[in-house]
Write a structure and sequence with these properties.
Keywords: Lipoprotein
Pfam families: OpuAC (PF04069)
CATH class of the largest domain: Alpha Beta
Radius of gyration: 19 Å
Mean pLDDT: 91
Structural class: alpha/beta
Shape: globular
Number of strands: 7
GO molecular function, one term: transmembrane transporter activity
Domain ABC-type glycine betaine transport system substrate-binding: 20-199
InterPro entries: ABC_Gly_betaine_transp_sub-bd
CATH superfamily of the largest domain: Osmoprotection protein (prox), domain 2
Order of helices and strands: HEEHHEHEHEEEHHH
Distance between the termini: 35 Å
Oligomer: single chain
């Protein structure tokens, strides 16, 4: 939705999809959204989570002044980054280190203790490998970004639509993490990984 309206304040799936369909060219059609989706999130090590009893971003607020945040350069100024955390939760970190979005730099910094909180994507493959704790966005500061098939109406035959909607119905956040792990961490072929998942999760339904 932000592609068409970068000032949108819509946050619920129903609002976003309704507004998006109205913005799309007439020959494009949205299909059924999946419950799975990726959002910006914040992770800590299991040790840090246990030390401060952290489960949610609300839990983070009272101790954030003692902690260092790591993330991409824009996290300090982007509306959905630190300014949003401060406005919604009252989070104000001791310091910020410019790194990456849950990539190698953040992984090393979090593991070594150079930072206490890492900015990540909620379904990154690294989260399926590292024993990190992703803090719950309990006040829904981040807008939903559910995966939703989009296609040209002329190509969306009943058969194609049925398969795509089956994928949406089956796909979960955990699936996304595992699929990303296979591609990003284990370096598997993306097309083969995707094909195997579709075969395993839609074959019975399609029969």
């Amino acid at each position: 939705m932000s592609f068409y309206d970068d000032k949108t304040a819509l946050t619920t799936q129903k609002e976003i999809l309704s507004a998006l369909q109205q913005k799309l060219p007439a020959d494009l059609q949205l299909l059924e959204p999946s419950s799975a989706g990726s959002i910006t999130a914040w992770a800590v090590t299991k040790k840090t989570a246990e030390k401060y009893n952290l489960h949610t971003l609300s839990d983070l607020a009272p101790v954030s002044g003692d902690l260092t945040l790591g993330g991409p350069p824009e996290v300090a100024t982007a509306a959905l980054g630190l300014p949003g955390l401060k406005a919604v939760y009252g989070i104000n970190f001791k310091s910020i280190k410019s790194l990456d979005m849950g990539g190698p730099l953040s992984r090393l910094a979090l593991s070594s203790g150079a930072i206490d909180v890492a900015t990540v994507v909620s379904t990154q493959g690294i989260l399926a490998k590292e024993p990190w704790v992703v803090l719950e966005d309990n006040k829904h500061q981040q807008p939903l970004q559910n995966i939703t098939p989009l296609g040209r109406k002329a190509l969306l035959t009943p058969e194609v639509t049925k398969v795509l909607n089956q994928v949406s119905a089956k796909l979960t956040d955990e699936d996304l993490k595992q699929l990303n792990r296979l591609v990003d961490i284990d370096h598997k072929d993306p097309a083969k990984v995707a094909a195997q998942w579709v075969t395993e999760h839609t074959a019975k339904t399609a029969q």
